[in-house]
Automatic annotation (TrEMBL):
Gene3D superfamilies: Glycogen Phosphorylase B (3.40.50.2000). Residues 13-179 form the Glycosyltransferase subfamily 4-like N-terminal domain. The keyword Acetylation does not apply. PANTHER family: GLYCOSYLTRANSFERASE WBBK-RELATED (PTHR46401:SF2). This is Glycosyltransferase family 4 protein. Residues 197-356 form the Glycosyl transferase family domain. The lineage of its organism: Bacteria, Pseudomonadati, Acidobacteriota, Holophagae, Acanthopleuribacterales. It comes from the Bacteria. GO terms for molecular function: glycosyltransferase activity. One of its GO terms (biological process) is lipopolysaccharide biosynthetic process. SUPFAM superfamilies: UDP-Glycosyltransferase/glycogen phosphorylase. The keyword Transferase applies.
Length: 387
């Protein structure tokens, strides 16, 4: 079978991990012919050696703004499909902004669109009327785009249910392929022998800066936490130092007198993110909205405690493997972090629970790849061969 992977929308965050994992598996698959189109941002993560194992790797130009985010796939992908003549197209995350001739699967990972009750989540104030109207217009385009593919691919049953409720998309058109950690991450975790520092607690925050990630909760949480721990601590981010998101967090921390408790390692390539996990005592993700996130299985794989938000998606994905908080309350966050960092029994219990949950809630990279192949065969109306 000839397959086209469309990764033209992938730029940053957990989507990069998902795309790299799928492309790595495709490059090692001798049973199908794989053509892959990648965004300019994702292209920087793909070596010539990896690309050389594919039938074709098409490196698209970088997008400079939101308009180009829509127009680059629309401009280039129809030509890519004509040249490849695939039997099936898999857009890793959409909307695709173009219509494939072959059977088309499109991944969905836009949580704000299926949580309308949290429309202004993560924002300090209501947007101006014109921005709200523009967002409504763009969301209308996105909604129509998600009705076009033959199948949508999501990572949880919660998202499948909400797509039916919010978009009216029938469940039989939605395929659940659970998220996981990537083979690159698993290999790095297995090799690393580093450990967290002894002179301070390190709290990893492996997240991009999006409003729904709720990272603005962290400066006031640091202010509460400094009176609850018996040693120094640091929240360690993965944000570029010159980025608006980091500058905003640094300014809030400075105003609260907790700037010394926030640090960043900058934007880490996916192959280096495992080191941050290994060198941390706990992972903190105060997110308000997710369709899924690689942070949960990565934390479980790394064997360190997780503190995250008490939300329906988090309960489904983490079960008893996480300490849950009210994501609007710095007091709740500080209390949970202090408990996990100060009480080894609590931390060990979370890690033990996570170790049991990991194989139940998350496929390993090979199992996820087989699920993706099964989705591809389903889109073509075929039964996948036995693995």
């Amino acid at each position: 079978m000839k397959c086209l992977i469309d990764a033209s929308q992938i730029a940053r965050g957990g989507a990069v991990q998902v795309a790299l994992a799928m492309i790595t598996k495709a490059a090692a698959d001798p049973n199908h012919e794989w053509h892959v189109a990648v965004s300019g941002e994702l292209s920087a993560e793909i070596s010539d050696a990896l690309g050389g194992r594919l039938a074709d790797l098409i490196r698209l130009p970088r997008r400079r703004n939101s308009f180009e985010r829509m127009m680059v796939p629309r401009r280039y992908m129809p030509g890519v499909e004509r040249a490849a003549k695939p039997d099936v197209v898999f857009t890793i995350f959409g909307p695709a902004y173009w219509h494939a001739k072959a059977p088309h699967l499109v991944g969905f990972a836009l949580p704000r669109m299926i949580y309308p009750e949290l429309e202004h989540v993560g924002k300090d104030h209501q947007p101006p009327w014109w921005r709200a109207r523009l967002r409504g217009f763009i969301d209308g385009i996105r909604r129509r785009q998600f009705h076009r593919p033959d199948y949508l691919v999501v990572e949880t049953e919660t998202v499948r249910t909400r797509l039916e409720q919010c978009f009216g998309i029938q469940p039989d058109r939605v395929i659940v392929v659970p998220n996981s950690f990537s083979p690159i991450f698993a290999d790095e975790i297995a090799k690393l022998t580093v450990s967290p520092p002894n002179d301070r607690f390190r709290i990893a925050v492996p997240s991009s800066f999006y409003p729904h990630k709720n990272l603005g909760l962290i400066p006031p949480t640091a202010a509460k936490l400094r009176d609850q721990l018996d040693r120094p601590f640091e929240f360690c981010f993965t944000l570029p130092e010159q980025s608006p998101g980091w500058q905003d967090l640094a300014a809030k921390a400075e105003a609260l007198g907790v700037a010394q408790y926030l640090t960043t390692r900058g934007a880490l390539p996916h192959g280096e993110i495992a080191r941050l996990y290994r060198e941390s005592h706990v992972v903190f993700l105060p997110t308000l909205l997710e369709c899924s996130t690689a942070v949960y299985p990565e934390t479980f794989c790394a064997g360190i405690p997780l503190v995250t938000s008490d939300r329906d998606f988090a309960r489904e994905l983490c079960g008893g493997g996480a300490r849950f908080i009210d994501p609007h309350s710095p007091d709740s966050a500080a209390e949970a972090l202090a408990e996990v960092l100060s009480n080894p029994k609590v931390a060990d219990q979370l890690v033990g629970n996570a170790r049991q949950i990991l194989p139940l809630h998350y496929p390993n990279p090979d199992q996820k790849w087989q699920a993706q192949l099964a989705a591809i065969y389903r889109a073509c109306g075929q039964t996948p061969p036995a693995a």
